[in-house]
Amino acid sequence: MNAQLEPRDGTTNVPEDMTGRPRRAPTGGISFRKTFSALRHRNFRLFFSGQLISFTGSWMTTTAQGWLVYQLTGSKALLGIVAAAASAPMLFFATWGGWVADRYPKRSVILATQTCWMILSLAMAALVWWKLVQPWHIIALAILGGVTMAFDMPARQSFVIEMTSREDLMNAISLNSSAFNCARIIGPSIAGLLMAHVGIAMCFFLDGLSFIAVIAGLLLMRLPKHETKIESESSPLGQALEGFRYVWNHRRVLTILSLFTVVGIFGWSYSVLMPAFARDVLHLDAKGYGLLMAGSGVGALAAALTVASAGHILPTRVMALGGVWIFSVTLILFAFNKNLYVGVVLLAIVGFGVVLYFSTSNTVLQSIVPDEMRGRVMGIWALIFGGMIPLGSLQAGVMADFLGTPATMAIGALICALAAFVTLSVIRRREAQLAEAK
User: Fold this and answer.
1) Which of 27, 92, 169, 249 stands 20 to 30 A from 135 (CA)?
2) Is it the case that residue 393 has pLDDT exceeding 50?
3) How far is CA 113 from CA 85, 138, 152, 270, in A?
4) In angstroms, rounded to a whole number, what is the distance separating the alpha carbons of residues 397 and 87?
5) Are 293 and 63 in contact (CB under 8 A)?
6) What is the separation of C-alpha 428 from the centre of its chain, rounded to a whole number of angstroms?
């Protein structure tokens, strides 16, 4: 995506794609070199390999934590509460996290957050190992993890372009997503085996150790001297809030983030209900639950590699909105499925759709935003992704107690599909207005 074709004020006089960005003519077919082009950058290779290991540990913790909460309490609502506790701090700290990412060296910020996460994972392992863990422990550690995420996510997302280049940005984001989703396949499978044969504590312990890989990779990077990019004379609070003013005045960015909000609240919350769905609807044990989660990861990995390989060819409108519709339709089918193996296949397609959407929208967003605002805008992205999810998680957990897990999933998916149609309508109306103005 050649964002250099756009002036800083966001205007353009060339044909536009789904988000208002200039269309590009295809620059060649799909090749192995294009699929992994971002790996030619040494810093990104270090980051990518460390993330692959750490993400595996994180998915082990995600899988184990949901199972542990439901095992301790049997409450679907508490599943939503724990997920909300992990994400709610984003509402209060993500804006500051974006400011910190623009103000200080991103590598230093990420080193601090990764160290904090390692400590939290090892603390959870100790509580479970010594059989001291209580629901309030899980909620408290989830809140601390959410605070850490509020500072980690904006820095990590906006750091990608500094490790690569604008030309390789979409490929780097897609490969990073592929690492996340490769771990999504491996992590739950390992967690299911460990929970069945060794114990849940080992999942948290190995997650804690996995952060060493990321920390080592960051320390080995060779980066230019950091230069503060914020030139505003406003107070730190004013500088932090400039991101909201930029988004509000930039119609393309506002469109992307508006749809992102709806999908975050009503769509992504399906993952919070997966332990209850696996146990109560499909009547699975820990191994079956791990297999179900791994199926979603297979589809997500396929989507990430699709974007990495063909993102320079396919229109972003097709990938983004198509991803939402694939996700929504398949999730509705999954919600009323009663067979494990059919469920694994459907969840793979669900994972494909949601990652196709997330990877594309993330790339387009970062390509549009100027360098000096990227941290703060990605702070708002993180606020929506991690801060609005508590609302979705909470409402999904409460709705599932009243309406049942399948109906809750289906309703959320339907809302996402309708939001994508509204977004397409808004984009076409704007295109018509531009055509009339010419």
Assistant:
1) 92
2) yes
3) 18, 19, 6, 27
4) 14
5) yes
6) 27
Neighbour count for residue 245 (Cβ, 10 Å): 12
Please state the rounded mean pLDDT for residues 190-201: 90
CA distance 22 to 2: 8
User: Residue 223: is its pLDDT beyond 50?
Assistant: yes
CA dihedral 95, 99, 104, 105 (to 10 degrees): 60
SS3 22: strand
Calpha distance 286→291 (Å, rounded): 9
Phi, psi of 75 (to 5 degrees): -105, 125
Provide the residue ranges of all domains of the chain, joining segments of one domain with +: 37-221+239-437
- Cβ atoms 21, 368 nearer than 8 A: yes
Answer left, alpha or beta for residue 134, where phi above 0 means left and psi between -120 and 50 means alpha: beta
Both tokens assigned to 364: 């387009």
Mean pLDDT, residues 370-391: 80
405-437 and 389-403 helices cross at what angle (nearest 10)?
140
CA distance 264 to 45: 29
Whether 214 and 51 have beta carbons less than 8 Å apart is answered as: yes
Q: Which residues contact 45 (CB under 8 A, 6 or more apart)?
A: 39
**Rounded Cα gap, residues 398 and 77, in angstroms:** 5
Question: 130-159 pLDDT, tens per residue?
Answer: 999 999 999 999 999 999 999 999 999 889
